[in-house]
Amino acid sequence: MNGRSPTPAPEAARSAEREPARSRALRAARQALRILAVELGTPTEPGTPLFAGVQNPWLRRVPYLVAFTFAVSLLPTTINVLGNDYGMNGGLAGALATAQTVPLMLAVTRPLQAWWVIFAADVVCALALTGVDGVADRAWPWTPPVIVGYLALMLALSLRERRRTLIAVWLTTGFAGILSEAITPERSQSTWVLMFVLAGVMLLMGATLRERGDAQRKLIEQETISEAERARRTLLEERTRIARELHDVVAHHMSVITVQADSAPYRISGIPEEAQEEFGSIAATARESLAEMRRLLGVLRSEETERQGGPEKTPQPGVAMLPKLVEGTVRAGVPVELVLPEEPVALEPAVDLSAYRIVQEALANVVRHAPGAQTRVSVIPTADRSRLTVLIVNSAPPVVSAPSAPLETTGTGHGLVGMRERVRLVDGSLDTGPLPDGGFRVAAQLPLAATPGTAAPGSPPPGSPSPGTAAPGSSAPGSPVPGSAASPSAPPLSAKDSGSS
């Protein structure tokens, strides 16, 4: 035997386990200190003043005013407390007081850098107070002026810096207070716990206010984006609706062309063979155009139309159907007076449809937003019969009103956006706006391309109501619809409103 006693195996194993645990703890501590240094040395938006995003210029000056007030009030107070109460040398007290208060002005634009200066000055001041006699029975390591200035600095920090930086500042403040316990002068009143708690409360309160403000700003931004997207979607939906309606109008004319071209050889005798081939080519081209339009329309059809089982079959409405529309609006509780031209007016299908849709949307808006208001609808040509004036004027709604029937829901739901699109489609003009008496006015000018006295393509066949006559069961042109308000209280039409020159 060699005289050396072997190390017990269990003790060696415990030593081996203890060493890696100590290494892991040291690595974690070094990593925490590195993160702490990074957070304390990386300010957020340096140089940007607090409240820089506020629109009001007076509110943007509030942080400067508050910082100046604290600095001016705390500087003489700190000098007086350090010199008279604690008995510190006057020069040293003035230097430390300046370092503890003047950087509060810097906190408006660079609060983290201001914290470094003020915190270092507070620590130096606490160390200097250990060598004076006046510290007995007084607050230490943080004097009352120091606590007040530090809390104001915490508020500025919390309104600017991110959460991890605030936690690092708070922990550093507490760590400095814990270290001060080792050199606490006798009979002094320790204030580091009070400082630690109040700093945490101030940081938490400021961070909560800042995060709440950030959330509100983001919400406003999202609402703005959503409103823009909603307007864009509404515009696209209205354009799609117009495209579908124009398909129905154009398809009618293409069908007429096809039928006329196919039947020409049978209706007209003595047509040369070359002319018959030309008519056949025209008919074939028209059929191909119809097929292409139907394929395009399949893309534009709405999901609601597809759920209903296929394309729309109802003919597109026009001015001739306005009496029926007005009657439905009257049943919804809105007194409406309708004025139509005395003589028939030849309208192109697109203009006829646009005039109807404009009146439809205007009446739907009256029912929704001004139920019970006196309304007058006028659809008449100008004096030179070059343009069609569509005018809808409603007065202010009654103070107490409740429609006796459900609100009108037959409009497209796109309001003024749809009106503008339809007016732009036919190269017209639209003027809308509120009236002085609380009502609203919608005035559209649509071109009359067809000459007076000639039927426009696709006009109603003989025997059907023309745009200038009322539908069966309704009033005659120029007179109110039965059940509507024909009293003098209805908004009158001026010469300009009626379209006369």
Automatic annotation (TrEMBL):
Q: Where is the Histidine kinase/HSP90-like ATPase domain?
A: 354-449
Q: Where is the Signal transduction histidine kinase subgroup 3 dimerisation and phosphoacceptor domain?
A: 238-303
Keywords attached to this entry: ATP-binding, Kinase, Membrane, Nucleotide-binding, Phosphoprotein, Transferase, Transmembrane, Transmembrane helix, Two-component regulatory system
Bias class Low complexity marks the residues at 1-13, 466-495
Q: Where are the transmembrane segments?
A: 62-82, 88-108, 115-136, 142-159, 166-184, 190-209
Q: Which InterPro entries match?
A: HATPase_C_sf, HATPase_dom, Sensor_HK_TwoCompSys, Sig_transdc_His_kin_sub3_dim/P
Chain spans, region Disordered: 1-21, 450-501
Give its E.C. classification number: 2.7.13.3
Cited SUPFAM superfamilies: ATPase domain of HSP90 chaperone/DNA topoisomerase II/histidine kinase
User: What catalytic activity is recorded?
Assistant: ATP + protein L-histidine = ADP + protein N-phospho-L-histidine
Enumerate the Gene3D superfamilies for this protein.
Answer: 1.20.5.1930, Histidine kinase-like ATPase, C-terminal domain
Query: What protein am I looking at?
Result: histidine kinase
